[in-house]
Amino acid sequence: MEKEEIAKRLTELRVMQKSRANPGMDLLETAMFLEDVFGIRLDESEIDEAFLGPTADLVAFTAYKLGGS
Length: 69
Known about the structure:
4 helices, about 70% helix, globular
């Protein structure tokens, strides 16, 4: 999947999350979203703000997990 498509999908997720303003739930929801949409299973250490934080970092992390750069 192209990085632009990854960014589009993750940006849509972030827009939904921003309106709700619940950071603790957002982290878990993001992990489930990555599994449902991209087929990425995270281990417990990756369900962390360091990996799933800002959208640009999340796009790069997702691309990496999908085998991109």
